[in-house]
Amino acid sequence: KNTDVVEAFRTEEELLQRFYQKYLEINPTILSGWNIDGFDIPYLYNRTKRVMGEQIANCLSPINNVYYNEHQNKYKIAGVSQLDYLALYKLYTYTQQSSYRLDFIGKLEVNMGKIEYEGTLDDLYESDINKYIEYNLNDVKIVKALDDKLKFIELARGVCHLGHISYEDIFFSSRYLEGAMLVYMKDIGVVAPNKPQRGDMGSYEKFAGAYVKDPKPGRYDWVFDLDLTSMYPSTIMTLNISPETKLGKLEGWNAEE
């Protein structure tokens, strides 16, 4: 069933008014899309601020607070979690791809690519408005198909619930691990110490670490370096022996035989 609904407007202001009306009706908890942190959200926010004013642009947030986080180099919408699907894909896939463009990943994972056109998007808008509309709809369909297959948003939410952290903290592994440990310690009746503030950590007494001998420059025989990065998780993934993949036990089977 085709559920696509296309609405036309005479001015950009009317378009943005309708978008924000629909956005507030949906009242999303999570925003996702391909590279939304790098393009969609900053463009939408700044364009709305220019056309309709900052007050309307801040309506992206349920508490009217949209700000630029210099540390993370992206706009943050207070009260709404931004799970950029490009970032999720890089986080939860373990092979390096030659390209992370939506067209390439869409064809690789779900056999769906972006609609091809000649010239610029402005040229397409002027020459073939129907194809222009389908181009935009198709991008959304690709991301939807990716999540239907990979379910990375569901995975991220599950991990965050276990660690009792906000959804966006999924991109910082130490936070959900720390959260999971705090939950476990509470369950066994152990009160964990408060984490020191960033400014207080420098005041702690320092102590000597392991001895590191200065190397003597030269050429040596029978020396090699074996660097096993993340050996245990890599082995588990390679052999598919993670506990949740276990289907059952074979009775009467002897591995030595």
Automatic annotation (TrEMBL):
Residues 5-103 form the DNA-directed DNA polymerase family B exonuclease domain. Residues 178-246 form the DNA-directed DNA polymerase family B multifunctional domain. This is DNA-directed DNA polymerase. One of its GO terms (molecular function) is DNA binding. Its EC number is 2.7.7.7. Keywords: DNA-binding, DNA-directed DNA polymerase, Nucleotidyltransferase, Transferase. One of its GO terms (biological process) is DNA-templated DNA replication. Transmembrane segments: none annotated. It catalyses: DNA(n) + a 2'-deoxyribonucleoside 5'-triphosphate = DNA(n+1) + diphosphate. It comes from marine metagenome. Signal peptide: none annotated.
